[in-house]
Structure formats: C-alpha cells, structure tokens
Specification:
7-stranded antiparallel β-sheet; 38 helices; transferase; E3 ubiquitin-protein ligase RNF123; 9-stranded mixed β-sheet; 48% helix; zinc ion binding; alpha+beta; single chain
Length: 1235
C-alpha cells in the first residue's frame, strides 16, 4: 500500500483498521476493514495510520449503543480483556454508554449516545488537546496537555464489548460533520472530485436544454420533461461525458459527494412525480452509456451510501432527512432494470436493507424536536391496572384533563409525521413485491421471495454470526411495513378475482406444510422431525393428499439426516478466511442473514425426496403419475410458485377438506407465511421489551405522587426536608417530561392502533390456519410449531402490551376471536398429534393463563359442550408423566372464589407489599366457572375408574409436594441457625416456595372434588371410597400436625420472612385444609358425617389440638363453654374477618365442637389392641386382610392404597392375586376382589 507523505501523519494513504497486529481480543472486521464487531469481553483495535502533529479528526458511526470506549492511543499502549482504550497511560477515550471520559481515571463527560449517532473524535496536537462531538455538537475539551515529542504518535482506537458494533470513517467518505481547521486522516480524492463535479455540470446542462428542430438552436427545458429523442448531437455529447464520468462512479467518495447530492437536489426541489421522472431518465442514460459492470458498481455504492445516510441521520422534528432519502430510494427502485439488479445482488446480499424500514427512537428528545411537537406533557395518575380495579381512584381534574388533551394533540402531530415516513417505506416494499414487471425477466416479487426466505432461514437457524442477525427492533418495523404492502396486493388480487378471499379472511392452506414447496429449514413441526413424519404418515399422505413418496429417496434422506452430526470439521486450510480465530481480528463476512448459502441440513429431505402427485378425480396408473421436483429457493420459477392449469404450485396436494377456490396468489401466501415466522423469531420479544418505557413512566409517576404527598405532610418548620423533597420533585418531573415524550414516540412507532390491528390480523390468520390444519386429521402434525406459538404470543401481546391507550376489547370480532382461541387451546393442549415438549408446555401455560381472566374464561365457556367436556376429561387424566402442576393450576382457577376463605386476590400478609407485576395471572381477581365445575362433577360420577385414578394421583402428588417442602425448610432452618455466615441458595428458596404453593393448590382441588362429588369419599357403595377417605385423612392430619405444632419448624421459617418465601404462611394452607374438613364433617347427611368422623379419628396422627389451633385455642374448650376471644399473638381464623365470613367461622366452631365430642366418645369406647394384631405397615389399624397366594397380612387401607400403584406383596414381592378378609376370631375369610 502506498505510504502517504503528509506532514504530521504516518501510515498508508488509505486508512483502515489494523487487523493484522493492532488488536487485542476477538473481533469481527468487515471486508472494507472499516466496520468492527466485538466478539469477546472487551476487544480493542486501532487504525493503520497515526498522527503526531497538526489537527485531525475521524468519525465513528454508532451501530449499537452499548459499552464502548472510543478515542486515541499510542503504539506503546498494551490492552487486555479488562483494560481498553482510556484505561492505560497515553490512551484517551469517550464512553457514551456510561457518559464518561477515560484516561486511567474516569470522570463524567458528554452526553449519552444511541444507535444511529455519529461521534467525531478530534485531536489538536499543536495545542495538546483532545475533544469529541456528538452529531456535530461539541461536547467540550475532554483532555489537555497531551504528551508530545519523539515517539509520541496517536492512533484512532476503540475498545468494545461483545456484540457491540461501529463503523469508522477516516475520510474514505465525505465526513458527515466536518470541523473547521481539522482534516480527516485520509485525504479526499481532490483531483477526481473536481473532475466529477465538472462532468456532472456538463451532464446537468444537457438535461436542461433541447435542440429546437425548427430553428436548430438550444432552448431551455425542465429536466423532468427531458426525453432522449435520438438526436445525434445530444447522443454524441452524452457519450463523451460518460466516457470520462463512468470510471469515477465506482468510487465511494465520489458517489456520496457528487452523485447523491445531485439526485437529492432533484428530490428536494421537484414534486415526487417530477423527481421520479428525472431519476428514471438518469438511470436510463446510465444503462445506455455505461458498461453493465460500471452501472452495477455505481448502483451498489449508491444504495450503500443511501442506506448509511438514512441510518445515521439525526432525528429532526419534521423527519425531512429521512423523507428525502426514502424518496430517492423509491425513485431509484421505480426503475425496473435497476430494481431487479439491486434486488438480485445488493439489497439482501450486501446490505441490511431492512434498515430502510426502521424508524429509530430518539434517546434525547430535545434534539429530536419533541419539545416543540409536544410542548405539554402528561402521564396517567395511576397505572392502567389500578384504573380498572380501584374504584376509589380520584377523578381527573379540569387542569389534568386540559393537559391530557394537549398531550394527545401533540401525540397526533407526531404520529402524522411518522406516518409519512411509514408510507414511503411501504412504497418501497410495494415495488419489491411487484409481480407484473416480468417483461424483462423474472418479476421482482419472485426475486424478493427467494431473498426473503434466505433472510428468514439465517435468522431462524441462528447459525451465522450472532451479531449480524437482524436486530429485533428492525424486525418489528419490517413486519408492519410488509403487512401493509401484502394486504394491498392481497385485496388488489381479490378485486380482480371474486372467488378469492379478502385479506381479512386470510389463512395458510395446510398443504403448504407437507408438500415440500416451502422450505421451513430445521424448524420443528408439531409432530416432530419432518423426515420422521414423512415416513410414519406416508400412507395418510397418499390417502388424504394424494402424495406418494419414493421409499428409496426417503431412505436416502433419512440417512442424510443421521449422518449430519458425523461430518468432519474442515481443516485449517479449508476454512474460509472469515472464520473466527482466537486472539485475532479477521475480515468479517457480509451479514450471514443476508448472503450466505443454505446452511446445515437446510431441510435436506425436502431437496432430495421425490414427490409424486395423483389427481384425486380417479385412480391413476403408475404411468399417469406426475413427478414433481422439490426445488431449492434459488431454483424456483414463477410457475413453481403460482402453478399453471395442470400444476397447483405451492398448493399441490390439496386435502379433501380444503375448498377448491383460491385463497389468493400463491406467492402472497408465502410472504404471509414468512411474516408469521418473523413475528415468532423476534418481534414478540421486542414488543415486550418496549413496554419498559411505559413501566418507567408509571414508576416515576408513583414516585412523584409520593413525593408531593410528603411535601404536603411535611411540617413547615422543617425547611431542610422541604428543600430535599422539592429537589426530588423537580427531578421526577423533568424525568417524566422526558419519558412522556419518548413514550409518545414509542406509541406512534410500535403501539399505535394500526400496529395493533396488524398483530390482531396475524392472530386471526393463525387461528384460521390451525383450524384448517386440524381438519386434515393426522396431517396436522406437519404444521410448524411457530403457528401455535404466534397464536398464543400475539394474543398475549394484544392483551398486555398495547394498553392502556388501546384496548383489545375494541377490536372487531373480539369475542369471536377469544372463543376460537379458547377452542384451540382446549383441544390441543392434550393433542396426541403434538409431540414437542416445549409447545405442549406453552399450550398448557396459555390455557392456565386463559382461565384466570373473566373475558377469556367466558370464552372457554362459550365453546361447544363436547369440546368443554373433552377439555375437562383431559384435565382429570392421571397426573403421572405429564405437566401436572399446570393442570392442577387450571383446576384451581376454576374453583378459586368458591372455596372456604378462597376469595382473595393476594394473601393477607402480602397486602402491604408491592407485587413485582400486578398483571400476573396469579394476581387476578377470582372468577370461578360453575359450568366447568359441573362438567368435572359429571365426569367424576360417570365411570368407576375416572375418580379413583384422578384422586389417587392428586393424593400422591400432595404427599410428594408437602414432604419435599418440609425437607427443604428443615435445611433452610439448619442453615439459618449456624453461627457462621450462611447464604441460602435462592434457587432452593424458590423450589421450596413452589412446593408449598403446589401443596396448597392440590388441597384446593381436593376441596373442590369433595364439594362437587362428596359421594366419591363418603358413599361406601363406591369400591374405593373408604380407601380414598383414609388416605385423605392421613394427609390432612400430617399437614395439620406439621403446621400447627407449638414453636415448630414451620413457625420459625415463616418468622424469618426470607426473600423468595413470601408466599409461605399459615393462612393459605390452613384454610385449604379447613375447607376440606368442614365439607366432610359439617355438610351432608349424618351418615356421611359419621363415616368421615370415624375415619379421621381412627388415624393415629389425629390430634384435636391441631383443630383447636385453627381458632387460636391451645386446648379444646370444656363442653358447654363458649369459645374465648382469640389471642392476637396466635394464629386464628377469627382474625381474618375480611377473608372469612361469619357463616364460615360458625361452621368451623361446629366442626370443633363435633370433633371434641366424638373424640371423647371414641376414647371411652376404644379397647386396647395387642401389638401383634396391629397392621405391620401402619401400626394404626388392626389386621383385616390377607394376600393370596403368599398369605401375608395387613389392614385393608394399606393394601388397597398399595395396590393402586403396585401389584407385588409388601414383604415377599410375590404377585398378589387376590385380597381376602381376615378375622382373627373366626379365622375365616371370603375373597373380596382381585386387583
């Protein structure tokens, strides 16, 4: 490389990043050696050129706003993964993430930067000072008295964290913010720049005149009206101009400084129609007078510069800069030949063209002009949840109403300006989706489809360089613009094809998922791997979809999948130059999500399997089968997608359940499928992330209200406190002013009504697609999992992210949509066609959340009865080998509000604490469903096996959960009592609290079951009722004894109030147990009450003291005496009058009186039993059963409980064939039943 002989500068004339030796850590460097991405903890890299005298500057384009230190260093500086630029002597840096400057020590400096900002780094070695500018605004002198002299030369340098990225401009492009007196490190091409400007002047002169055919002289004419008429003089003149002009137009500097300025001048001066006409003429001349490779290089540089200008333009109030860049982009793309070249080779291969559809959010609202647009700020006086639930929230004052309306008017002004930009972005996508420009080759839409699919593949697989994946904030904007363009073409097609569907009725036909015409990469299907489904469901494919798969090809594809993980790694010689290497900075490939070929397996099955289709009208012979190749994305043509009169394209293999009329153009179906995939990839995650701005507003508003309340209550004599409170009030108000304006931007760009309707449209499409797929029976398994995920997540987003400005209840067809989603969740949460653990868990969690809210619960009640009954039947299936905790949670929510003392939203001891998230399903008001409870009762009564198997699993899980809980609190108590300092693992605390919550919820399910179907436990005509009642009594006594013992382990752990164990308290578990006991011992006929009493008292663990504990009494009261007042220091249900009503307390008192009397009678009537006559298993009941054929004995309760889960004898492990009654006196027995 040629050395530059410039005083004050050392190094090559072309300044780039030094990827061969000037680095530390692991970095990714782009092909032009000007863009860098951190790929280690804190990597550092410097440039190839240094300066030692004079005034110099360079610019850094901030692509991400994370941790970076940008500045200068000398060659003697040594960096590592902990110390970067500014952390060593003779290195200086500015950090806009932490808003500090660094030179061994650090102090506050400058402003916070954001993605899209430009930092100018200036060094004045004559004065010995160093300063920085942000978007052309000086941040002031950062450092003085720089070391100068022999050996002291300063290199531009940067240290950046993992995934952070920037682009340098040392002068290879025109500086965005040149500074008087400072020169860039790289000299501009002065001679070429002058030559290009003169040639451009000649070119413009030709466009502004024409030859008068009558008088033969030149006359002035508007450029927009100029047309090439084949006049020899004009053609010869243009040929001479382009002969010299064309070689200059491949240089980045000249394209940006000359050509773009010329084109932007046209766009800014003329109307859009006139500007497009002139740009079209210019591009026609380019293609006419320049070689193809010259035009292509020029267009590539032109589009790259436009993208960079758009991305790093400052936000101004009228968004004029962004509008001009987008209008010029549209004018270029309207030129068909240029559009197809850019689409085929540049937009998705060399550029992050998605940036064109992004509107960045301003971090500093004052620089974006939001103060002028929204002069009056406002924020809600309470959160949306408080407004809905708290009836005591004070009404809005007239002053607040005026402020709110002024704020809303400002938001509308901002929204209208943003909509102008969004409309231009949609126009770009409309051009890219044009399918009528096929006169000169393939239409733009089909080129776009292949590029779009590769874009999705790389983002879905995540196999490329993670920092180069499309950022979620870009994906959100891209999705909304794509939906707008897609619906435009969809409804346009409907207008000319009445049999097609409107976009409001859109869905993806199910054959798209199994005919192999659309590549879904390695994305999981509902039924598992695609190769497995093709093999196991090939008969169904043939019968229902008329698709036959060649067995030999199927075997080859399966083996190819199996061998995937055994492919040898490439040697060092085979690796591409762009591969990562530890300790080095290597050239970075173009974004993998835009340019790399199909990766990994890439659904190899689809590219190798031979698919034959048969027309369903009549049986076909072998010779009539039509072979259809499954082509890769790049090989497909318009006919492969849209089909023809003998070929249905993407819709080959239509099942009989699908209608024959077209939904829309097949290509639009693929675009829609991609849009749904985009939402699943990262859009939903970003929507949730942006809610943080609204949460910040609520938190600061609450802090401001608290501060103002303290000011009102503060005594006037305490001026010191008033001063501090006033300062806090001012800080909170200023912060809220800033956040409310930023929130207006977020609402306009992310959470507007139009954006909400887009997400709602995707939700309804997913619901229809799932419904159509479900009708195909077993072929439903081919559907990708993300369709169910998007249905679940989009509903969640609409419900939680778009309020309080927009409510889901206002959407058209809201009730119908809720019901359809409810039907899908109710049917598919236990669908055997769905095998993926993650998607099954997602469905279960979604249903559990769905029944927590009144509107969605009523939607579940509106689905057809057979579907409701099937859902409840699946919920009552035995809990083993499935996510029983979520199932139990669903049943609990159906009961909450009906149980004993079970009408609370938050536990009594947590009322004074603020929940982390008030919108959590667990914190919703009780909304029980008597309809679904009735279904549950009917099902439990139906068969002899349903209730015993369900209740046995519930009792097993309760025994496990409570035992685990007791074991863990013992460990926690032991750790807390040690003298040395101990820290209890937070994960252990969380698991402990979860086991407690599960125990409470299982007890509530038992309470619901006993209330709805008491005969299951109390009617001895049921063969298992006595066994179930004995097991229940045993568990209830164990829980009571553990929780109510004086100064016991439970008491001590509750008193500690450890973080993570907030939910562990006496109230929730004791009221659940009390609810069961009251139903057994107080309600119902006397015969059932007597049975329950005898079983409860017969349990050896029963202690009357535990029942007395419920009412705060240490001992049972004497017969005939009234209950004393509760001791406030002791637990008592009487202390919770806001949670337990008088009738419920009276029932507890009757239960205690009944048990006191029955216990005394039982004690008087009981006869001593010798130890040898007691059951050797429980030592609580007499021996009453003998096992055949081994002859061992136990009580009936123990053997019946054992046989629920095991058929082997307790003692000898022989198989128990039958159980016979055994009476010691008679020594005879009769066979009762076989297990």
């Amino acid at each position: 490389m040629r050395k530059a002989r410039v005083e004050g500068r050392l190094g090559p004339s072309t300044v780039v990043l030094d990827h061969t030796g000037g680095f530390e850590g692991l970095l990714l460097v782009d092909d032009d050696l000007l863009e860098v991405i951190g790929h280690s903890n804190f990597g550092t890299i410097r440039s190839t050129t240094c300066v030692y005298k004079g005034k110099w500057l360079y610019e850094v384009l901030i692509s991400s706003q994370g941790l970076m230190q940008i500045g200068w260093c000398t060659i003697s500086c040594r960096f590592n993964h902990e110390e970067g630029v500014g952390d060593t002597p003779n290195s200086y840096a500015y950090d806009g993430n932490r808003v500090r400057k660094w030179n061994v020590t650090t102090t506050n400096y400058g402003k916070a930067w954001a993605a899209g900002d430009i930092v100018s780094c200036l060094i004045d070695l004559d004065a010995g000072t160093l300063s920085f500018c942000l978007n052309g605004v000086s941040l002031g002198t950062a450092f003085e008295n720089l070391s100068k002299g022999q050996g002291m030369a300063y290199f531009p340098a940067i240290s950046l964290s993992f995934k952070e990225s920037v682009a340098f401009n040392f002068g290879s492009r025109p500086l965005r913010y040149p500074m008087a007196g400072f020169r860039p490190l790289q000299d501009p091409p002065g001679a070429d720049l002058v030559r290009a400007q003169r040639l451009l002047g000649c070119f413009r002169a030709v466009l502004s005149v024409e030859l008068d055919p009558v008088e033969g002289r030149l006359v002035e004419k508007e450029s927009s009206e100029w047309q090439l008429q084949g006049q020899p003089t004009v053609l010869l003149t243009l040929a001479h101009i382009f002969h010299r002009f064309a070689p200059l137009l491949h240089k980045v500097y000249l394209v940006e400084a000359v050509l773009i300025n010329f084109l932007l001048g046209i766009v800014e001066k003329d109307t859009p129609a006139q500007a497009q006409s002139v740009v079209h003429q210019v591009l026609d001349l380019f293609w006419l007078f320049m070689e193809d490779y010259e035009v292509q290089d020029c267009l590539k540089q032109l589009m790259m510069s436009l993208l960079r200008l758009y991305r790093f333009s400052p936000i101004v109030p009228d968004l004029s800069l962004q509008i001009h860049y987008l209008r010029l982009t549209i004018s270029i793309l309207r030129h068909e030949k240029s559009r197809k070249f850019l689409l085929s080779n540049v937009l998705f291969d060399m550029l992050r063209s998605v940036i064109f559809f992004y509107i960045k959010s301003p971090l500093r609202v004052e620089e974006a002009g939001l103060q002028e647009l929204i002069p009056t700020t406002w924020w809600p006086c309470c959160s949306s949840r408080e407004a809905r639930e708290n009836k005591e929230v004070k009404e809005e004052t007239s002053e607040e109403r005026l402020r709110r309306r002024a704020y809303e008017r400002g938001c509308q002004r901002l929204k209208k300006r943003i909509e102008v930009v969004e409309e231009l972005q949609v126009q770009i996508l409309k051009l890219l989706l044009d399918n009528k420009d096929d006169s000169g080759g393939e239409a733009s839409r089909y080129i776009f489809l292949s590029k779009f699919r590769k874009f999705l593949q790389e983002n879905a697989s995540g196999r490329g360089n993670m920092p180069m994946l499309c950022p979620p904030e870009y994906m959100v904007c891209f999705l909304h613009r794509l939906i707008s363009a897609l619906r435009y073409y969809w409804d346009e097609y409907k207008a000319s094809n009445p049999r097609a569907c409107f976009s409001e009725e859109a869905y993806i036909p199910p054959q798209v998922f199994y005919n192999g015409k659309v590549d879904y990469f390695d994305l999981q299907r509902l039924g598992g791997l695609l190769s497995h489904l093709r093999k196991t469901l090939r008969d169904d494919l043939a019968a229902k979809a008329n698709i036959v798969i060649d067995p030999l090809e199927l075997q080859a594809a399966t083996m190819d999948d199996l061998d995937e993980d055994e492919e040898p790694a490439p040697s060092a010689a085979q690796r591409p130059m762009q591969a990562l290497a530890m300790g080095g900075a290597l050239p970075l490939p173009r974004p993998g999500w835009l340019s790399s070929p199909t990766l990994g397996r890439a659904n190899r099955f689809l590219s190798t399997a031979a698919v034959s289709l048969m027309t369903p009208r009549r049986p076909l012979s072998t010779s009539e089968k039509v072979k259809v190749r499954t082509l890769s994305v790049e090989q497909r043509t318009r006919e492969d997608i849209e089909g023809s009169h003998w070929n249905e394209g993407l819709l080959l293999g239509r099942p009989p359940e699908e209608p024959e009329q077209p939904v829309t153009e097949n290509s639009l179906l693929e675009v829609l499928d991609g849009a749904i995939m985009m939402y699943n990839l990262s859009v939903h995650q970003q929507l949730g992330k942006m809610v943080g701005v609204s949460d910040d507003v609520n938190e600061y508003a609450m802090a401001l209200r608290d501060t103002e309340d303290k000011i009102r209550r503060c005594p006037k004599r305490r001026k010191d406190i008033l001063t501090e409170l006033t300062k806090s009030q001012k800080v909170f108000s200023e912060k809220l002013d800033h956040l409310s304006r930023r929130l207006a931007w977020v609402h306009a760009t992310v959470y507007s009504q139009e954006k909400m309707l887009d997400i709602y449209w995707l939700l309804r499409i997913c619901l229809r697609t799932i419904e159509h797929g479900d009708r195909t029976g077993s072929l439903f398994a081919f559907m990708p999992e993300f369709y169910l995920n998007v249905a679940i997540n989009s509903y969640s987003a609409l419900k939680n992210y778009f309020g309080p400005v927009h409510s889901m209840e206002e959407l058209p067809g809201y009730e119908e949509t809720l019901t359809r989603l409810a039907a899908i969740l109710a049917k598919h949460f236990a669908d055997t066609r769905i095998v993926g653990t993650d998607i099954r868990d997602s469905l279960m969690q979604a249903l559990a959340s769905y029944v927590c809210y009144p509107h969605s619960l009523r939607a579940v009640e509106r689905i057809p009865k057979e579907q409701r009954v099937a859902m409840v039947r699946n919920l009552l299936a035995p809990y083993e080998q499935r996510p029983w905790a979520q199932t139990n949670w669903i049943l609990v929510r159906l009961w909450r509000g009906c149980g004993f003392g079970y009408r609370y939203t938050r536990l009594p001891h947590l009322l004074k604490t603020k929940p982390d998230d008030a919108n959590l399903p667990s914190l919703q008001k009780p909304c029980p469903s008597t309809l679904l409870q009735q279904h549950m009762a009917d099902l439990l009564r139906q068969g002899p096996d349903v209730a015993p198997s369900f209740l046995n699993s519930v009792l097993n899980q309760l025994n496990w959960a409570f035992s685990e809980f007791i074991g863990m609190i013992q460990e926690i108590q032991q750790a807390a009592e040690r003298l040395e300092r101990n820290f209890v693992d937070s994960r252990q605390l969380k698991v402990c609290a979860t086991c407690f919550d599960l125990s409470v919820s299982l007890l509530r399910v038992l309470e619901m079951t006993i209330t709805l179907v008491p005969e299951i436990f109390l009617d001895w005509a049921w063969p298992t009722s006595e066994m179930l009642l004995r097991r229940l009594a045993q568990l209830l006594n164990q829980v009571l004894n553990r929780v109510t013992a004086e100064r016991n382990l439970f008491d001590r752990v509750v008193t500690l109030r450890l973080p993570g164990l907030e939910s562990v308290d006496h109230y929730p578990i004791l009221v659940a147990v009390t609810g069961i006991l009251v139903r057994l011992l107080v309600h119902g006929p006397a015969s059932e009450t007597e049975r329950a009493t005898s079983v409860l008292l017969a349990d050896p663990c029963f202690q009357l003291r535990s029942i007395c504990y419920l009412l705060g009494q240490p001992e049972p009261p004497a017969p005939g005496t009234a209950l004393p007042a509760p001791d406030r220091k002791r637990f008592s249900l009487q202390s919770y009058t806001d949670y337990i009503n008088a009738e419920e307390l009276a029932q507890v008192e009757r239960m205690l009186a009944h048990l006191t009397s029955a216990s005394a009678q039982a004690a008087a009537a009981s006869l001593p039993t010798s130890e040898e006559d007691l059951c050797p298993i429980c030592y609580a009941h007499p021996i009453s059963a003998v096992f055949q054929p081994c002859g061992h004995k136990s009580c009936k309760a123990c053997i019946n409980q054992h046989l629920m889960n095991n058929k082997d004898c307790f003692f000898c492990k022989a198989t128990v064939v039958s159980v016979e009654d055994w009476d010691k006196v008679a020594n005879t027995g009769t066979t009762s039943s076989a297990p």
